[in-house]
Amino acid sequence: MSIVAVTNQKGGVGKTTTAINLGAALAAAGQRVLLVDMDPQANATSGVGRKGATASGGTIYDALTTTRTDLLVTHFVVDTPTPRLSLIPSSRDLAGAELELIRLPEREHRLRYVLEPLRAEYDTILIDSPPSLGLLTLNALVAADRVLIPLHCEYFALEGLADLVGTMRRVRAGLNPALDIEGVLLTMNDERTNLGQQVARDVREFFKEKVYNTVIPRNVRLAEAPSHGMPVLAYDARSRGAEAYSAFADEFSQRQQAV
Fold it and tell me: Is residue 207 helix, strand or coil?
């Protein structure tokens, strides 16, 4: 069982789309998957059909900041319309969590304490991180075993990655020595353009075998699915986007088994 943080501080690279659709594809293949929405925008929550959802214990904000000792971690988990895919939902309240976490003991470890008791319940836990390298993302990196990095196939694809790698290095040094890169996923690719092909070549040259063979194409169905509160597999299973994420889930699972 593994905890994977889907992380890239650059916005608009497909983090939430990847977290939702990888989770749904793994669940469709028979895995028990938990999706953790660590973004105050709560797009992963709405994207799996649970907009505004609150578990009996609250949202991820409550899980991170509570001082109550009578709550079980399962009190923060809700089901989704996708069989075997569960969710710890987010809300706008999470936007203020970084300030509140500063005052709490072991502030970088709060998410790890939430997720560790859930390891035995799921085959994979996916954390959808916010587009920043603040305390919420730091919590995701401390809680995770590995980091999945979606990269947009555009000119600025590698911009800012040095900051992420540097943050990972600092996390390994003092907070989570076992943290590693799970892999790099090329997203929103237009194979018809020379630019997309060049970026893909550059990324593969830089990250070597860490780059997945599967590439996620630009696809209208992928863009439409969240507005219907569905993973693309439920919205249009025969679309290029659904087929790509199904292929990615297979490749992801094969790597997991090889670890």
Answer: helix
Highest mean pLDDT (candidates 20-29, 71-80, 162-171): 20-29
Which residues on neighbouring strands pair with residue 127, listed in sequence order?
A: 5, 36
* 3-37 pLDDT tens trace: 999 999 888 899 999 999 999 999 999 999 999 99
* pTM score, whole prediction: 0.94
What domains can you pick out in the chain, each with its CATH number?
2-258 (3.40.50.300)
Answer yes or no: are the C-beta atoms of 39 and 98 closer than 8 Å: no
Residue 131 and residue 10: Cα distance in Å, rounded?
6
Strands 180-189, 146-152: pairing is parallel
Convert 26-64 to b/e letters by CB count within 10 Å (16 or more is b): bbbeebbbbbbbbbbbbbbbbbbbbeebebebbbbbbbb
pLDDT per position as a tens digit, 29-56: 999 999 999 999 999 999 999 999 999 9
Q: What is the DSSP string of 12-56?
A: SSSHHHHHHHHHHHHHHTT--EEEEE--TT-HHHHHTT-TT--BT
